[in-house]
């Protein structure tokens, strides 16, 4: 039996990267998928790819920086299915700036998409998540949110909030049979299926993993978006039925060692 047979999943940031990889993987494992993204062209493409493989998918265009748009998206999802088994809060944006050069508008948008949207999506979809009696919420965090990346100021700060948010949500929602966990990923720069990676300008330009990052990663390579989708699948499935309030690190060992000791 497929691992998500008969389940309904909502995935944000589904137009590319980990979101597209997860949409395809979840559907292959039996889930019906609502693909959420601001990019209508590529978002529709993801949903079409799922359907072309015989899966069940819809696309809902949503600007996750807009609270009213999130409210409308949640309403559309609950019209689509009255129960939601999986919410993967995957969408993110990242811009490289030095601290003193970060404009407030850019700061606010990154906080809105990377931190406030996971809170609001979870809250607004709660009736459908509660209806299952056995749902999973997955946040996509970052190792930059643990100690901070000097070149990704707003991204680091906004991703950092997902870890305590995971902990407090896991406490409040466990009584409703909802598990909440987080994936803190490192440099996800490649795809085994040719899925475009578009988190920041470096990714969009196809720049390889830097030598400094590669040297700091014991496995000596970047991550594949499919590897993050695999972890999300585990957290979405009944195989992780006693995993709650956890943060799983997916970085090839980069944060598992003390910097400068080798």
Explain what the structure shows.
The strands form two sheets. This protein has a seven-stranded parallel sheet with strand order 3-2-1-4-5-6-9, with helices on both faces. It has one domain: Rossmann fold. Helix 1 (17-28) packs parallel to helix 2, helix 1 (17-28) crosses helix 10 and helix 4 runs parallel beside helix 6 (153-160). It is 41% helix and 18% strand. It is built from ten helices and nine strands. It starts with 7 loop residues before the first strand and ends in a 12-residue tail after the last strand. The chain has 262 residues and is α/β, with parallel strands linked by helices.
The CATH topology label is Rossmann fold
Total DSSP helices: 10
Number of self-contained structural domains:
1
Shape: globular
Strand content: 15-25%
Q: Strand count, sense and closure of the main sheet?
A: 7 strands, parallel
The percentage helix is 40-55%
What is the typical, i.e. mean, pLDDT?
96
Number of strands: 9
Name the CATH homologous superfamily.
NAD(P)-binding Rossmann-like Domain
Question: What is the CATH first-level class name?
Answer: Alpha Beta
Low-confidence stretches: none
Q: Largest beta sheet: what is the strand line-up?
A: 3-2-1-4-5-6-9
CATH architectural name: 3-Layer(aba) Sandwich
Helix and strand arrangement:
Blueprint (H helix, E strand, L loop, with lengths): L7 E5 L4 H12 L3 E6 L2 H13 L3 E6 L5 H14 L5 E4 L14 H21 L1 H5 L4 E8 L10 H8 L1 H12 L4 E8 L2 E3 L10 H4 L6 H6 L6 E2 H12 L10 E4 L12
Parallel strand pairs: 1-2, 1-4, 2-3, 4-5, 5-6, 6-9, 7-8
Helix pairs in contact: 1-2, 1-10, 3-4, 4-6
């Amino acid at each position: 039996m497929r691992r998500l047979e008969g389940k309904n999943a909502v995935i944000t940031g589904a137009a590319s990267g980990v979101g597209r990889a997860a949409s395809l993987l979840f559907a292959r494992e039996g889930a019906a998928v609502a693909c959420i993204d601001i990019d209508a062209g590529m978002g529709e493409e993801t949903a079409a790819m799922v359907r072309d493989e015989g899966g069940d998918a819809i696309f809902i265009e949503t600007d996750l920086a807009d609270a009213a748009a999130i409210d409308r998206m949640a309403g559309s999802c609950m019209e689509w299915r009255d129960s939601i088994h999986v919410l993967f809060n995957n969408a993110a944006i990242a811009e490289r700036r030095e601290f003193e050069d970060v404009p407030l508008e850019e700061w606010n948008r990154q906080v809105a998409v990377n931190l406030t949207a996971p809170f609001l999506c979870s809250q607004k979809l709660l009736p459908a998540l509660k209806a299952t009696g056995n749902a999973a919420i997955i946040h996509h965090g970052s190792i930059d949110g643990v100690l901070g990346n000097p070149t990704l100021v707003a991204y680091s700060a906004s991703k950092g909030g997902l870890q305590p948010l995971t902990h407090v949500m896991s406490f409040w929602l466990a009584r409703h049979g909802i598990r909440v966990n987080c994936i803190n990923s490192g440099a996800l720069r490649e795809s085994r299926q040719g899925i475009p990676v578009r988190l920041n300008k470096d990714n969009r330009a196809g720049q390889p993993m830097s030598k400094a990052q590669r040297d700091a990663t014991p496995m000596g390579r970047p991550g594949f978006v499919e590897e993050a989708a695999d972890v999300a699948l585990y957290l979405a499935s009944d195989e992780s039925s006693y995993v709650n309030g956890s943060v799983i690190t997916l970085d090839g060992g980069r944060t598992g060692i003390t910097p400068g000791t080798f």
